[in-house]
Amino acid sequence: MSSDSSSTSGDEFTNPNPNPNSTSKPLEDQFASAALTEPDNEPPEIQESPNGVVNGSVSENNHGEIERNERGGAVGSNLEARQSVRWRRTNSEVEVEAPSSPSSSGYAGERGSSSGSGSSGGFEMIGGGIGGDDDEIQEVSNVDSIQDSQASWMPGKRHVDEDDASLSWRKRKKHFFILSNSGKPIYSRYGDEHKLAGFSATLQAIISFVENGGDRVKLVRAGNHQVVFLVKGPIYLVCISCTEEPYESLRGQLELIYGQMLLILTKSVNRCFEKNPKFDMTPLLGGTDVVFSSLIHSFSWNPATFLHAYTCLPLAYATRQAAGAILQDVADSGVLFAILMCKHKVISLVGAQKASLHPDDMLLLANFVMSSESFRTSESFSPICLPRYNPMAFLYAYVHYLDVDTYLMLLTTSSDAFYHLKDCRIRIEMVLLKSNVLSEVQRSMLDGGMHVEDLPTDPLPRSGTLSPHLGQPRDSPESFREPFVGIGGPAGLWHFMYRSIFLDQYVSSEFSPPINSPRKQKRLYRAYQNLYASMHDKGIGPHKTQFRRDENYVLLCWVTQDFELYAAFDPLADKAVAIKTCNRVCQWVKDVENEIFLLGASPFSW
Amino acid sequence: MASRRRMLLKVIILGDSGVGKTSLMNQYVNRKFSNQYKATIGADFLTKEVQFEDRQFTLQIWDTAGQERFQSLGVAFYRGADCCVLVYDVNVMKSFDNLNNWREEFLIQASPSDPENFPFVVLGNKIDVDSGNSRVVSEKKAKAWCASKGNIPYFETSAKEGFNVEAAFQCIAKNALKNEPEEDIYLPDTIDVVGRQQQRSSGCEC
Fold it and tell me: Which has more pLDDT, B89 or A25?
């Protein structure tokens, strides 16, 4: 694939939006101009080299095929050299690579790109587990149980009785540790921190030893395990994982954990360590186990953790406007940020004048509020820090739940603003009730957002008047829903995520069969996450398109200046049709953007 | 102040190779002793939960290698130590003479905020050997040295027989605790929006 073929075609599809009818062309053009091959004719472009070394994150999937069109050159050999250390395949992975008969076992056909390669059999094959939490040890016989991931996830720390001598502890698929640079444990996902003091010391010894040599340890690969290190001044963060996630993803998760810690304490903890290297941070974090475990859990179900974007609750434009107007009203009275959310979805948010809120800060703040049970019981006023806004200092958050899922957060710089914010909240609540925003929110929670079954037929009418609204009955005659019940949307479309780069927002389609179990959903997110990492790889990326087929899905990714689209299809889906379908998805998103995104007056300047 | 919470104390064990650091630790943590000598490589880490004066705490014991080639690990290891245990062999004069070097090396590398009062404990080990007949460092001499360094507590121990080991570590814990500084109230700044040059709020941007 020559670089000019991709760059010329690149110009055409940077924006499918201005002319709806032209949108189906560009992505197809791009693939065509890159002379990419159809699946059955060609062996995978990325293959294992004789010594069993494969290239980067792309190939950790059990791909039958990877085709991509990149800006800068070949996918093949140069990568192999560069990343050979990081991505050494083990035998068990090779096994997975071999086409397995879907009928040979209950779960073979569902095996994910990231969960199929563990070394210790049952423990690691069952990545999804019941809780949707990758790290649970599961019996093989539980594979078929399907429960709702979030519903069955138990908040808080588990397995506190374990330590590094426990077999069960050692088998956990993904560990996270926070420790101080003197080796004192601060947080461990599993097991009791104090019992892990020796383990913690070992981690510090490794990090400090390398640091002493004027170097930095970032990643250690040991068999199936990756040990990822992140040093943040006196705070060390470590992830030990055999989930096969790319290094960049795991490091991003450590960054979020560090951000969560800052949100609770600010970076001023560094001063405590400067004054006293023996400083023990655990008392300061007392009672926040649940915040961290909830964040870690979200790594397996919330795409915001790797997309660095937030998502909105689908609402009629006027409804969101009404919410935004009253928030704007209070923001003008000295509130720095006013945020109305329903679970992890934004209803509306407003920043005072130039203040802007980073999506990661929103994620961490929402996680903090949702995971702390006490916020639900009464109105609260709590110091919090937004690490991307100002990591050094506290803001104050007034938090109040308006109903069981919907909560209002008013952030201020004034520590004595509680009563003012309470008044603001009362005003807001009245307006929201009066304008039926809260009942609309409830309805949207029930209806959900975009369902792949509802993907409109192509081509769409050009005028907006006939474009489908999310709110309209989903069993309308034009809808493709009927013929596709149980098998996703048209053309084998199973799911998609669309991230608007300009808005810092993403929309994800609702899960429908066959992606209907938490385990499958998590696996799909992992596949997206891998796709994201490979598209944004600093060494070989960024890329514009990627089409990959394996035994689980066809995955298609399309990145332009304006958006990123991630779509999953039936593994047997026709490529040309899939590409066409992606264009329709983009058009559909554009048609309903009023309802799925928070538009206009967006103060985001990141 | 620091009332009921569990504390974690980082304890570094230093001394010449072969004086019995690892054996002391094994005796203390696992109540085991082996005559076989295995040189520690780099450092070993052990944890022991201790009850002391109604308080529960965890000793994180850093058993370091005595060989000189591991000395470069110092800075990385010593940071944030709560207590340092100096061990020598009462039957080897050199190991006693070196205590001074170990102490000074530790103070340089760990650079504790108050070096004068940093808690050390000295252990004269292997008093069981040859029923004490091969002993070359007298208790008096050792105590004199300890007194000259700011009254470092001194214990004569036998890792092999478990003699005085428990008592020594009790003292280690006590001293580490004593040294715990009064912690200030944690009070980070609040964002000062008005003070920011960009006038992020209030101000007159309309």
Answer: B89
Taking an 8 Å cut-off on Cβ atoms, the answer to whether B76 and A205 are in contact is: yes
Of A358-372, A456-470, B2-16, B69-83, give the lowest mean pLDDT range: A456-470
Contact B113 A198 (CB under 8 A): no
Nearest Cα of chain A lies from the Cα of B40 at a distance, in angstroms, of 14
Q: What is the pLDDT of residue A107?
A: 32
Phi, psi of A394 (to 5 degrees): -85, 150
pLDDT at residue A113, rounded to an integer: 34
* Cβ contact B202:A334 at 8 Å: yes
Cβ-based contacts of B2 with chain A (< 8 Å): 283
Q: What is the CATH architecture of A452-596?
A: 2-Layer Sandwich (3.30)
Please state, rounded to an integer, the average pLDDT across all residues of chain A.
Answer: 75
Distance CA B50, CA B8 (A): 10
Q: Cα separation of A524 and A530, whole Å? A: 10
Q: What is the pLDDT of residues A400-420, one digit of tens each?
A: 999 999 999 999 998 899 999
Tell me the pLDDT band of A216, cut-offs 50, 70 and 90: very high
pLDDT of A584 over the 60 cut: yes
CATH number of A310-442: 3.30.450.30
Helices A317-331 and A437-447: crossing angle in degrees, nearest 10, is 130
Under an 8 Å CB criterion, which residues of B touch A?
A: 2, 5-8, 10, 42-43, 45-47, 49, 58, 60-62, 72-73, 75-77, 79-82, 110, 112-113, 180-181, 186, 188-193, 198-203, 205
Mind spelling out the 3-state secondary structure of B13-52?
EECCCCCCHHHHHHHHHHCCCCCCCCCCCCEEEEEEEEEE
Q: Are the Cβ atoms of B79 and A182 closer than 8 angstroms?
A: yes
Q: Is the pLDDT of residue A356 over 70?
A: yes
* Cβ neighbours around A393 below 10 Å, total: 19
**Chain A positions in Cβ-Cβ contact with residue B189 (cut-off 8 Å):** 266, 268, 392-394
Q: Which residue has the tokens 């990343």?
A: A83
Q: What pLDDT score does A53 carry?
A: 36
pLDDT band at residue A58, thresholds of 50, 70 and 90? very low
Q: Is B75 within 8 Å of A208 when comparing Cβ atoms? A: yes
Distance from CA of A246 to the nearest CA of B (A): 29
Domain ranges of chain A: 3-96, 167-299, 310-442, 452-596
CB atoms A393 and B190 under 8 Å = yes
CATH code at A167-299: 3.30.450.70
CB atoms under 10 Å from CB of B138, counted, come to 12
Query: What pLDDT was estimated at residue A47?
Result: 35
The amino acid occupying position A309 is A
Residue A108's nearest CA partner among A140, A60, A67 is A140
Identify the closest residue of chain A to B193 by CA–CA distance.
A413
Q: Which homologous superfamily does the CATH classification assign to the domain defined by B7-178?
A: P-loop containing nucleotide triphosphate hydrolases (3.40.50.300)
Instruction: Tell me what pLDDT residue A267 has.
Output: 94
CB A156 within 8 A of CB A290: yes
Beta-carbon count within 10 A of A122 CB: 15
Task: Note whether B60 contacts A211, CB cutoff 8 Å.
Answer: no
Closest-CA residue of chain A to B113: A276
Q: Is residue A247 scored above 90 in pLDDT? A: yes
Q: How far is A191 from chain B (nearest CA, A)?
A: 14
Distance CA A91, CA A421 (A): 59
Planar angle of CA A534, A538, A544, nearest 5 degrees: 55
How far is the alpha carbon of B5 from chain A, nearest alpha carbon, in Å? Answer: 7
Residue B184, CA distances (Å) to A95, A183, B103 in order:
57, 22, 29
